[in-house]
Design goal:
Two copies of one chain form a homodimer. Chain A is mainly α. Helices cover 70% and strands 0% of the residues of chain A. The structure holds a DNA duplex.
Chain lengths: 183, 183
DNA sequence: CCTACCGATCGGTAGG
DNA sequence: CCTACCGATCGGTAGG
């Protein structure tokens, strides 16, 4: 058993029981070690949570950077954002579940950094919506409401892994959201 | 301090720290009692969670029944569902937060009942989408995906209480979702 | 509603 | 990676 396997097993447990309700003894049992042996691989329960949340935050941050690098129009950029969210959820469903629901259990220092990354991501996302409105590609009244609605509508995606083909979800969401923003 | 006040205080704490990370000592401090005194009003921590989750489930179930009683067309029914979700979130934001995120910590028996209610609610919701598609009011490919996307898009609403006027949210969501389903 | 207390479980350490 | 163990905290009870 290695560090990577322990963190993946932890993400599985955190997804199904939540961070706080998962004990290090649960995790030890799942990976076939004595509880104390976990600490040869990781320093604390907190550290596992941090690693899961930060690796997801990185994926979104890097995905956003790639999207912003090309000078596409806002419609194509939004399509790429939808793809980013669905593909990330399908590639790492348990980690995304933890990233969605358990980030608030990060310790104070990590929480500040996490929220800084998220704020930057959201700023970039909203800017795309603003550009789409300016160029009359998107229509909406309140930017903040439309933004949180779109983000919220992605959050179930990790649950779809065993139910819906990835491309079907991407197609349906592309149709749904681009239509929602149409004039 | 009465039972009702204790449950509302618990909902507040569960919203901000989660059910598992909230201790009965946290709750006692918040309502100004010794921890053991809570048990004059409630029987267990589980019971509080059950009361919060079930009262929300009731609100949605009863709201759905009222909507189905009138023979409106699917478009108006969907508008009323949007209103039901936003108004319920605005009337009981903490309870809805717990209902959204902590229902999985219900004990086994309550969980079965809870999921039965939810399944029935979802069946009714999906039937409205199906009728809308049949009568060519709504357009979509995959019912399940569009359904979970719409439901998911409501889940942030309780966070909007101190940010957006209720009617603004309802209007924006009506526009967004009805547009998303247009031909 | 309080004082006093219980057994169970928690995250984590010492030492090999 | 294990055995043995720690202090802290958990939900909850007894008795008044």
């Amino acid at each position: 058993m290695n560090r990577e396997g322990i963190i993946l097993a932890a993400a599985d447990l955190f997804e199904s029981k939540g961070y706080s309700a998962t004990s290090m003894r649960d995790l030890a049992e799942k990976v076939g070690l004595m509880p104390s042996s976990l600490y040869s691989h990781i320093n604390s329960k907190q550290e596992i949570l941090k690693e899961i949340c930060m690796s997801c935050a990185d994926l979104f941050t890097k995905g956003m950077e790639e999207i912003l690098m090309k000078a596409d129009d806002p419609e194509l950029q939004l399509q790429k954002l939808i793809m980013l969210h669905i593909e990330t959820a399908y590639d790492h469903p348990s980690s995304i579940a933890v990233f969605n629901d358990d980030w608030r259990h990060l310790n104070e220092k990590d929480l500040v950094y996490f929220q800084k990354m998220r704020t930057q991501y959201e700023k970039n996302f909203k800017e795309i919506l603003i550009q789409g409105k300016k160029s009359h590609k998107f229509s909406f009244q309140n930017l903040e409401i439309v933004f949180v609605t779109i983000l919220s509508s992605f959050k179930w995606a990790y649950k779809g892994v065993d139910k819906f083909p990835k491309n079907l979800v991407i197609d349906e969401l592309n149709h749904f959201i681009l239509n929602a923003l149409k004039y």
